[in-house]
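Much of our argument rests on the idea that a fold can be written as discrete symbols. The amino acid sequence and the backbone structure tokens for this protein are reproduced below:

___
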Amino acid sequence: MSAAPSAAPSAAPPRRSIAETMAELRAAGKPSHHAPLYSRWVNRPLGRRLAAVAARVGLTPDQVTAVSGVVTFAGIGLVAAARPTPLVGVVAALLLVTGYALDSADGQLARLRGGGTLTGEWLDHMIDCAKGAAVHLAVLVSFYRFAEPAGPALLVLPAAFGLVTTVVFFGTVLTDQLRRGAGAGATAEPGPRSAARSFLTAPADHGLLCVAFALFGWLPAFLVAYAVLLLGTTAYLAAGLVRWRRQLAALDAAR
């Protein structure tokens, strides 16, 4: 008895083009109305393009996160190890900017694929926390090794920036987790003040810090930019402490 003819294999679904993937990423992306200026207008659009490329070549969100970490820490290592020159500054800035864009791409890719995982979110946050502290440690090491003169006042600058950055990161993540545990939704709705808020929070954007390293070969100019970003981030933290506590106090009162 002859065997029954086998069914014809189904055709593989056509691969989406970069443009089609970009359109899906725009539809699946989280709102950016209140994101800081650089993240809103530069980093997320750049991350969207990188996420589309990653989807095209078949990378997973965790793999994009890992690449982001490698690129970012290559830039941080360059800052700590190499004597500051205009070329070193530009290369470090490019590495940091690319790493930050990939940090946006992994989340966008996860949403495109239907949502992320707990391990993926954990990996992303661990790398974010490490890079936020390490970049300022690298600046401190560079100042100590290469700046003339490397006095205590100069070294306090990156030490203070690292402290402020760590508290901002921890406060943001902790408040978000406490709000999720209390079943609270988003706190901010899109509105006419969103563009103004993007400008006001711009100095606290990690992306602008990445760009500032293009000045690393010109110490006076870099110090001015670095100090301005430190002051802006400190102001953001001060406002955040008030806002976070008020949000949590409202949830306590509603219980």
Summary: Residues 31 and 114 are 16 Å apart (CA to CA). Confidence is low (pLDDT under 50) at residues 1-14, 188-192. Residues 219-254 form the longest helix (36 residues).
